[in-house]
Every structure is written in C-alpha cells, then in structure tokens.
Amino acid sequence: SDHMENIYGYLMKYTNLVTGWQYRFFVLNNDAGLLEYFVNEQSRHLKPRGTLQLAGAVISPSDEDSHTFTVNAASGEQYKLRATDAKERQHWVSRLQICTQHHTEAIGKNNPPLKSRSFSLASQGSANSPGVQRRPSQNAVSFFNVGHHRLPAGKRVPIMQPDHLVNVREMMSQAEGQQRDLIRSIECLPASGHLTSLDQDLLMLKATSMATMNCLNDCFHILQLQHASQQKGSLPAGTTISWLEPKISLANHFKNGAAQNFPAEINKPASVREEQSIAEPCQLTREPEEINPDEELEDICDDKEDDLGAVEEQRSVILHLLSQLKLGMDLTRVVLPTFILEKRSLLEMYADFMSHPDLFIAITNGGTPEERMIRFVEYYLTSFHEGRKGAIAKKPYNPIIGETFHCSWRMPKSDVAPDAGTNSSSHSPSEQVTLPKDPEGQAEPDYYTVKFVAEQVSHHPPVSGFYAECVERKMCVNAHVWTKSKFLGMSIGVTMVGEGVLHLLEHGEEYTFSLPCAYARSILTVPWVELGGKVNINCAKTGYSASINFHTKPFYGGKLHRVTGEVKQNMTNTVVCRVQGEWNSVLEFTYSNGETKYVDLTKLSVTRKRVRPLEKQGPFESRRLWQHVTESLRDGDIDKATEHKRALEERQRNEERLRAETETPWCTKYFLKDGDGWVYHKPLWKTVSAAQTQQMDSN
C-alpha cells in the first residue's frame, strides 16, 4: 500500500501523574509492525526505550480533545500520546490503523495449520527461575488434568431418568470449573517469552474448550425439553414447571471443578436458594397488586457511580470483549462483564427521571397552552441529569421479564409553581369531574402524591413499560421503551425506541414525546455518557410542538452535552421559546417577549423517592430481585456479584425455553399490549372517564 511507509516524529507521551507528559521521538516500523520510541532523535540508533506490537492493537482518538489518542496493544500495554494539532493526530492515527490492520490480518494468513503439538505450561527450574519449556512427553490434557469418564467394558448407558438430570448438571458444573481453570492458567502466562498467552495453539484451545461447553449446555437443554414434553400431557392446569438446578452451591461451582459432595439445600447460600425459588411466584401471582403509598418510606440509598477502580483493573477483559465485536453489532444478546454495572435496574433508572416532581406537577398549572408546553419542555430537559448516577458511564441491570419497580414521591403543595390565575370556567369539562373521595373522610393532605410503576413486559426484544400519575392534579404519563444497543468502535450507542404520552386531563390535552439516544464514550479509558439525536414533543389539540436537539461532541472542538430547542405554534409557525445550554449543567430559556430564564440543574432540589422496604416487596420487584448483586457490588466482590447475576439470567433463559416448549404465553402484570405499544392496565384517564359517566348519570 502507498500508505505503508515508515513514519517518525516527536509526540508527547503520558508517563504518570508525577512526570506527566514528555516529548519522545516515535518511529512506526511498518515492516515489523512495531511502534518504537526513543528519548530523542539523536538516540534513534540506540535500543528503543519502549516497543509496542501493533498486531491486534486498538488505535483510538480521545474524546477529551482533538490532539490526544491512545494505542492499546493486545498485551494490555497502553500508550497515551498527544500530537501538536488535530491534523498531525489524524496522520498518526490513520497510519497506525493501516499498519495494525495489515499485521493483524497477516497473523491469520501466515499461521500454519495446527499440528500434533505437545506442550506444557508447567514451570521448569526453581521458584526464582520461572522459565517455561516445552516437553514432548506432556500434553495439555495431562497438564490440566482434564478427566474423561469412561464406562466399564460391556456396560450400556442406562436410560436417563428425570432425577438424573440434576446429577448431569453437577457434572457439567465440574467441567465448567475445569474449563475456567484452563483459561485462567493460559491467561496467567507472560506476554513474552517462549510460550505466551497469545500462543496460537493456546488461543485455539481456549476457543474449542468454550465451544465444547456451549455444545454440552445445548445438549443438556435438549434433555430438559424432553423431560418437559413427557410431563406436558399430565400437568394439571396452572402448574408451574420448575427447571432443574445443580445441587452444589454457586459459590463452589465458580471456584473449581473438583468433585465434591454437598447436601441438596444445606450448603446453598440463602440468597441463591431464594433466587432459585422465585420462579413459581412469577407464574402464580400475575394479578396486579395495589401498592399503598403509606407503606413506602423515603429512600436512603445513594449509590453514586464514580468509582472506576474495577474498570481499570479489568482493562484486559474489556479488550478481549471488544476483540469479539464488530462495528454495528447488536449488543442485545451480548453478556457484558459485571464490573461495569450500576447498582440499580433499568426500571429504577426510569423512575429517577421523575426526581423533580414539582416541575412535573407544575405543567398542568400553566395558564395557557403555550405555557403548559414550555413547562413540559423544561421538565423534560431537567429529567436526564438526575437519571444518571455520577459522571462515569455504567450500565444498569437488564430487567428480568416480569420484573417490576414501584415508588412514589410526596411533594408539598406549597413547593409547586402555581397557575397563572386563569378562570376555571375556561377549562374543559373534564376539569369539573371529581374523583371518588376517601370513604373514611380524612382531611385532604397538604402534599401531592406522584405514583410510579414500571414493568419489563418483553425479553426479546427488551421492552419496558412505565406509568406515573398524580391523581389530585388529574395528570399521568404512560410510556414504553425498547432499548437497542450497538457497538460503534470505541463507544456503545443505545437507541431508545418507543413513545411516551403525557395526559393533562384537566385540559383534555395529550403530549406525545420520544427519547434521545445515549452513547457510552471512551470505553477503554474513562467511559462517559452523552446524549444525541432529535426528539419531538407534540400536542395535537393545541397545535403547539417542540423540537429538541441533543448534540454529540464533534471530532474537532465543540462543547460536551450541548442541547438546543424551540417551541412553536404550528398554525402560525411562530417560535414562542428557544432553549440552549447543557442538559447536565445550565439551561437558558428565551421567551418571545424577550425575557430570559436560567435553570442550573446542579442546584435543583431533588425529591427522594419513597420505596417499600425489601421485606415488603414482592420477589420480582427490582430491589429485592437484584439485592444480592447490588450488595456484592457495594462490597466490591465482583465474582460474587457475577454468580448471582448469572443465576438470575440462567433462570430467565430456561423459563423462556420451557414456556416455548409448552406453548405457554407470558402474561404481563400491569401493562397491556395496545397496537405497537404498551398501556398501563388502569390508567387515570379511564378512572376519570368512568367518574364523569357516573356523574352525568346521577344528574
């Protein structure tokens, strides 16, 4: 290629916090596939101060400015470099990427077919000389002590009884433990030397061992389905089929593959036993439950996601994951590592968007359609800041199908912006409707209550429904969101497919709205979140609409988290309000009369949500369902968190397979399918309509 020339020049290299940035002379050796650097150009004839193999490396421009970029080698070593300007950075990045691609492809082309090759990972010599040598007399199977179970001669395989599936699961658990030990041993090898963790045969061994375990799991699933189909005809109506679980505890299952005998239940951790027993309530308690807000207590959890320690320690895991992804790949079915998770479910994240209930309730207090649209835009733009927990981009738990989350907010009436003194006779007839009063005749409270419920209504595709209402102000919002994740190179994009509708029943108005896309940037260094895309808000009755643009940071210059928008009257095409600023900082609203209003999101008061204590929550409510994962993450025990997360996900997959085999449809609890969307089963607009009909009949 014309671009495969050797290039050289000075770049700044980040060394450490003490030394900081230093000028170094870099040389790109295309023939050898090496990036070398020297103290200066005069020392170029000496041994390089540092060398990176570019085969399998990832070259990524930094989002922090237009001069910096990183070179992440397959060995895990990283160079953080800075050019003098954006043009020079682009020159180095493009040449490095071309060289990297060339030598990465050459590995596959030049790698000879596998031969019968024996090797040992056992260290030779003393403990002080951990040299690694090959021994033709010892192969990988004997070194890792992978056991093969053979039947005695003349014996036939007995017919598999249903109870024996548990024993099969135990044997598979042991094999999985051995396979993990194998991979761990390979990955612990040095990055250089006679036998390395990047040895082609060892990489093939890792891949084939993983494929073997996947095949065994598929075979075990077939046995489960056969067992289920045999019992299908004899099951009474309403019976829940519970899948089979291993008798060994998950803690020991994840440690090693040694054969151990455990009693069926005694040695299981209580948390795992609970996770394994919640399948039956999932099917038996699908009737909607009325949550009493008086049982909810003010939330005291404050899990900020500013800790990046685990991500930095697991950089090699991220690199390995990225090496298996392709640009544009759908990540819906990709299991991401546990250490990048937030300590909350996606359903709870949707609830945190409602953390300014005073602004939400104040929408209906607007005296004119124009003012109500502007108030809705203000509430909409202030909701995203609190929805994020800290500056670090982490991922909330993927909700389990049937998972729910309930909470509420109490807002003192004095803290809600009042109306503009409009005449009540100008309101629509629905405003005059009074809902049934408390039969006990209690005094009206001095606060408004906003109730929230969310449910994961579908697993594939992953769709969540959520609903919030304030009965006193006759307003509610209903939405459904399908999250679609894609791999974009050095970032991950999440498209929020769906629609929400805000109902202001006092005015007979409906406001439809969409949600922006979210991006996790710089996933190899310090990941951060930005929003992007255009969203629209429309009210068909009043003819007012809003167009809001979330701007992603351009490649050269530009500000982060910028947002612009305008509110206009469609009939006259008149812009009545413009907004600009940052969605996580300060917003500026400019009105048609020339007035300007500034909203500092960092100083807005946040109303804590109210949640029932764990002991009063149902088994499929988010915090109780994920409590052991959350506790482990708080304790910094990533392995334990992974165990509990895996148990929940396996249960969901197995239950879904059995439902498909027995042709049992999933029944949602709070939301009903309505065309392409989902609607809350008991929305406020139906209650108001029923009360209005009853009132008209009584007259």
From TrEMBL:
Any one GO CC term of the record: membrane
Region (Disordered): 104-136, 416-440, 638-658
Main location: membrane
Xref: Gene3D superfamilies: 1.10.287.2720, 2.40.160.120, 6.10.140.1150, Pleckstrin-homology domain (PH domain)/Phosphotyrosine-binding domain (PTB) (2.30.29.30)
Biological processes annotated in GO: lipid transport
An MF annotation (GO) of this entry: sterol binding
Ranges of residues in domain PH: 4-101
Subunit structure and binding partners: Heterodimer with OSBPL9.
Functional description taken from the UniProt entry: Plays a role in regulating ADIPOQ and FABP4 levels in differentiating adipocytes and is also involved in regulation of adipocyte triglyceride storage. Weakly binds 25-hydroxycholesterol. Interacts with OSBPL9 to function as lipid transfer proteins.
Name of the featured protein: Oxysterol-binding protein
